[in-house]
Every structure is written in structure tokens, then in C-alpha cells.
Specification:
Largest sheet: 4 strands, antiparallel
Distance between the termini: 39 Å
Low-confidence stretches: 491-496
Helix content: 55-70%
Structural class: alpha+beta
Shape: globular
Mean pLDDT: 80
Radius of gyration: 28 Å
Oligomer: single chain
Strand content: 5-15%
Length: 553
């Protein structure tokens, strides 16, 4: 069974990658960009539908991949989002006989002895396990009573399934990693290894229970954030019993509005909780897909004041931590947004280690400053409604930088990047007018005031930079005048080298495409003439030219 599952995953991704290489890499490379664009929307939809069908049938890690893709409302084409939107809700539940066997084996007793009631129908089925409603007998100062709980039980043999899926995905990552333009920016196999480690932690329910308690402690003083209590007496490595804290699903927009809760407020509150998790707690809920977030409306106040509401987090199998170095880089980036300082953005890139060694720092600073000038304060719809001439001007001015993309994704960014991607999609779905700039600015200003008041070294460092610039300005001005008088002034064109490199690559691609076409036509003619051996040799030459075109652009 595992071998068949492994082959099926590989075959699916092989077909998708071959099609993508043909339509989106080869055809544009040989000058057929318009042909490549024909039917692109339908191709995306068919590929997403095929993946959705495969994920629903097979479950496992593929559901996690689908969850990530379906939350990218702000980046991915709508065709893909529409196909994957309800993927999580389509996961087929495990037969209750198997779930009972796993639970009773872990709890060392029949379910009827450990719980006052246990619903055989699951509340939700996920890729790793499924959730059942139950009631737990407890005895405390109030006497004996029954508490509503939810019980997470792992699917049978889930560890073997995860191992097979990850093994297949490692092969796929190896295939993609051979594409040089992508390899420059991301070490996909290394990222997959980090993702694999987080998945294996997710299937350890004792670990998840401890994560929930840590998260709850961080928000203990926040009445508007709730985390379920863990009942350790009924929790093992494969069974987790939690307080029942269900509410309105965060993507049930109609129910949120019916409860009188502004969706825009929910988006801002969710975003602010993640700012605290990342910048203050350095411990964040890394799987904020819609099935793990709820809203609990409170009773309507008699005085007509706003209805209280609580943001509920569940499922802490996947959490992330922020290292001191990453925190420094993120804070520098946050301060850069608040002050609209392109140089600080570049500094944040350097601290985070996301720049390639040959990145043009001056050009990056220019493009960041221009982004602040043109886009700061605008919502996503406002950016999309900008005049095409303005967007074209921006592309012409910084096209070289955008083409080269001098960024690389560090290996320790997979959880944080995945989390922020899903969070961005959820906030945009809650409020199409969600404004990242105005949402992050107040928190950044508060953080700057806090750090400035507590750390005199920060202000001293900034003052030193200003003083150093002021002292050196007369000498730099004198040097500039001298060079002008001597006719030695040089004008840097940082984009020229990139343009020449692109021209050379274009010439190589054109030559390879001509060779490919020549060999292919020759093979066809020889085949029709009956010279099978020579036709095979010509076809081999065409294949080698195609490989060179795809792998060495």
C-alpha cells in the first residue's frame, strides 16, 4: 500500500511539473509567450481540481499542502483558491471502529469507562486525526459533574502515511531544485526537512498539549483571547482531551455578521494577536487555517454597548519560535515600515539573511523608498485599481531588479512564512479593505517608543550615525567637486550589468531552442522516411537541447 501511494504522488507531481515546464518555461523561452498565455486560467483550474481530488482521496500531508495553498487569497490565482477553498472540510473521516481501537489502546480502558458520553460521529476530520465531542466526569468542590470536551484521536498508521508522503515530496523537491533560477532563491529540500520536523512534532499530542498551555500563559491577561484547557488525565501520545471551546468559524462570514460582529474588527484583532506572538512572545501558532480559529460572541449588553467577543485558538500541534537574530531582523523591518525608510528595509534584509551575495543594495534601497512613496497606506483593492501606466512605469524603472529577484529564503523561515501567508489570506478574506500599513504602524510605533525609552544605546547609535554623516559631508562634497573639475565623475548604472546578463541568457536560450527545433524536425523526417535508428539519435539530440534549455537558462 505504501509503495503504491508513493508512486501515485510522484506520478501526479511529475505530470504537473512537465506541463508547467512546457507551458510556462519552454514556450516563453522560444518566443511563444502568447501561446503560453492561452488557456492559462483553465490549466490552473484543472491542476488545482486534480490536486484537490488526490488530496481528498489520500489525505495525509497533501491536505496540509492544500490548506496552505487555499489560504493564499492575496497571491494565488482565484481559480486555484476556488478549487481548494473547502478542501479541509472534504477530508473523509476514519471508520469509528478504528478510532475506538486507537483511543482504547492509548487510554487502557473502554471509552464508556473513561468518558460519560462519546459521540461516534466526528465533529471534524483532519489529515492527522479527527475530533469527537464527549463529556468528561469530574469531581471538584462543586461535586461530581460532566464537562463538555472534545477528543482528538489520531488516524491509525498515520506515522507511516506521513513518512511515505514526505519521502515522495523530497523527490519532487529534488526535481524542482534542479531548476537553477529557483535554486538561487530557495533551498527547497532544506525547507521540506524543516517542514517534516514540524509535522512529526504535530503527531505527538503530548507535545501539542504543552504548546497549548504555553500559548495560554502568554495570553493569560487577555480576556478576548481563549485557549482550550488540556485534561491531562485523558491525554496520551495519540489521544488529546480538551475543553470544548467551539464558536463561529472565522471564515463563516454570514454567521459573524449575523452575530453583530464587524468582520474588519476581527481581521485587525487577529492580526494584532500575531504581532504579539511574534514580536513579544517569540512563540506563535503556526497553523492558523480556518478550522483552527473561532469567534465566540458574548451576551448582548443591555446598555447597547458593543457586544463582547472572544478570539479562540485551537490545534497547537504546529507552533514556531523566533530566534533572537530573526527577531532583530523583523523588528528592523517593522521600524522601517513605520518610518518609511528604505535603507532600514535593506538592513532588515541583511539581518534576516534573505539577500543573495550579489544584491545591489543601493538599488534595493531605491525601490523600497519608491514602494513607500506609491503604495504606503493603500489597501489591496486600491493597489489593484492603480492606473496601468503607473504600474508599467514602476516595472520599467525597476524591471531589472524584479527580474533578478536577489532574494533567498532562509531554511528557518518555513513555519513563519507559511503562517504569515495563511494569516494574510484570512485577514484579506475577512476584510477586502484590510490595510496592512495602518494595521502594523500603531504597533510598530508603540514598540519603538518602548525600546527607545528602555534602551539608551539605540538613541546613541542613531545620533552617532547622524553626527558621522554631518562631519563627513564637507569632505565628501569637496571630493565630488574635485572629480567634476578633473572630468573623472562616474555615473553608475546598476541595472546595465543585469541587462547584459539577461541578453546573454536570451541568446543562449534562442540558440538552444533553434537546436531543439532542428533536431526535432530532423527526427520527424527521418522517422517518416523509415530510418528509425537515425531518427532516434536525432530525437536524443532534441531531448538534450530541451534539457539544456530548461535546466541551464
Amino acid at each position: 500500500m505504501e509503495r503504491r501511494r508513493y508512486r501515485r504522488i510522484l506520478w501526479f507531481f511529475a505530470r504537473v511539473l512537465i506541463a508547467a515546464a512546457w507551458w510556462d518555461i519552454f514556450l516563453p523561452a522560444v518566443g511563444l509567450r502568447r501561446l503560453s498565455a492561452l488557456g492559462r486560467s483553465q490549466r490552473y483550474r484543472r491542476a488545482a481540481a486534480a490536486f484537490r481530488q488526490l488530496a481528498v482521496q489520500m489525505g495525509g500531508v497533501l491536505i496540509k499542502v492544500g490548506q496552505f495553498l487555499s489560504a493564499r487569497l492575496d497571491v494565488l490565482p482565484p481559480e486555484i483558491i476556488q478549487e481548494l477553498a473547502d478542501l479541509q472540510d472534504e477530508v473523509q473521516p476514519e471508520d469509528f471502529t478504528e478510532i475506538r481501537r486507537v483511543a482504547e489502546s492509548e487510554l487502557q480502558a473502554p471509552l464508556e469507562e473513561r468518558y460519560a458520553w462519546f459521540d461516534p460521529q466526528p465533529i471534524a476530520a483532519a489529515s492527522i486525526g479527527q475530533v469527537h465531542a464527549a463529556r468528561l466526569r469530574v469531581t471538584d468542590e462543586h461535586g461530581q459533574r460532566e464537562l463538555p470536551v472534545v477528543v482528538k484521536v489520531q488516524r491509525p498508521r498515520i506515522e507511516a502515511v506521513v513518512k511515505v508522503d514526505l519521502s515522495a515530496l523530497r523527490v519532487v523537491a529534488g526535481w524542482v531544485h534542479r531548476y537553477r533560477p529557483l535554486r538561487r532563491h530557495v533551498n527547497l529540500p532544506a525547507l521540506l526537512e524543516e517542514f517534516s520536523q514540524s509535522l512529526f512534532e504535530e503527531i505527538q499530542y503530548l507535545h501539542e498539549g504543552k504548546n497549548a498551555e504555553t500559548f495560554a500563559a502568554h495570553f493569560a491577561d487577555r480576556a478576548d483571547v481563549r485557549v482550550p484547557q488540556v485534561y491531562w488525565s485523558h491525554t496520551t501520545q495519540r489521544v488529546l482531551t480538551l475543553e470544548d471551546v467551539r464558536g463561529i468559524k472565522i471564515t463563516d462570514y454570514a454567521a459573524i455578521e449575523a452575530a453583530g460582529i464587524p468582520r474588519s474588527e476581527v481581521a485587525v484583532r487577529l492580526f494584532n494577536t500575531y504581532l504579539q506572538q511574534i514580536f513579544e512572545d517569540r512563540f506563535f501558532h503556526a497553523d492558523p487555517h480556518p478550522g483552527n480559529l473561532f469567534i465566540q460572541p458574548g451576551p448582548l449588553p443591555a446598555d447597547g454597548s458593543p457586544r463582547p467577543r472572544t478570539l479562540v485558538f485551537v490545534d497547537f500541534g504546529m507552533v514556531g519560535t523566533i530566534s533572537p537574530n530573526v527577531l532583530d531582523g523583523l523588528r528592523e523591518g517593522l521600524f522601517a515600515v513605520v518610518t518609511r525608510d528604505g535603507a532600514r528595509v535593506v538592513k532588515a534584509y541583511q539581518i534576516l539573511g534573505v539577500l543573495l551575495p550579489n544584491a545591489d543594495l543601493e538599488l534595493l534601497e531605491q525601490v523600497n523608498n519608491r514602494v513607500f512613496e506609491r503604495f504606503w497606506g493603500k489597501t489591496s483593492p486600491e493597489i489593484l485599481e492603480m492606473k496601468s501606466e503607473e504600474a508599467l512605469q514602476f516595472m520599467q524603472e525597476f524591471g531589472g531588479l524584479l527580474y533578478e529577484m536577489p532574494f533567498q529564503l532562509p531554511e528557518n523561515f518555513i513555519l513563519l512564512g507559511r503562517c504569515l501567508a495563511i494569516l494574510s489570506g484570512i485577514c484579506t478574506g475577512l476584510d477586502a479593505e484590510f490595510n496592512l500599513w495602518t494595521s502594523v504602524a500603531p504597533y510598530g510605533e508603540k514598540l519603538m517608543r518602548s525600546e527607545g525609552g528602555q534602551n539608551w544605546k539605540t538613541w546613541l547609535s542613531e545620533a552617532g550615525k547622524i553626527l558621522q554623516t554631518a562631519v563627513g559631508l564637507p569632505m565628501r562634497t569637496d571630493a565630488l567637486i574635485s572629480r567634476l573639475e578633473q572630468g573623472k565623475l562616474e555615473v553608475r548604472t546598476p541595472d546595465l550589468r543585469a541587462q547584459l546578463a539577461r541578453l546573454e541568457r536570451s541568446q543562449r536560450r534562442t540558440a538552444a531552442a533553434v537546436v531543439f527545433a532542428a533536431f526535432l524536425l530532423t527526427a520527424a523526417q527521418l522517422y517518416l522516411a523509415g530510418s528509425l535508428l537515425l531518427a532516434g539519435l536525432a530525437a536524443g539530440g532534441a531531448l538534450m537541447a530541451l534539457i539544456a534549455l530548461l535546466l541551464f537558462p
